[in-house]
Amino acid sequence: MSGQPPERARVERVRVERVRVTGPARRRTPGARTRDIEAETRLGEVYMGSLLREQLWLAVRVLVVLAVVVGSLPLAFHVWPGLTGVRLLGAPLPWVLLGVAVYPFLVLLGWHYVRRAERNEADFLELMSEVRE
């Protein structure tokens, strides 16, 4: 330290490029499996059949939930007649449940169905875009 000023730290400026992230590429090159579907081969029928079975099974499950939940309400009012005398927000409980509260449930059930159906299709596309065997 002979009276010299200390060295200044060198600051390097690095230019950072901005990148726009828009999501996965929309165009996919058809793989061998996709060609089987487009050519309507027996293997393509098996692939499409599995997707259709899964979508059908999803629809059946959603309809069963709908039937059990909404269908059990009138049954509950029949089994416990005292419930029909209950008033909620100034209206009879059956009217509130069957006339008002069932609609948000239907929207939620529909939202779940669409979300799950899209996930099934995405899984199917992922299976189709795997590396050729």
Automatic annotation (TrEMBL):
Keywords annotated in UniProt: Membrane, Transmembrane, Transmembrane helix
TM stretches of this protein: 58-80, 92-114
Protein name: DUF485 domain-containing protein
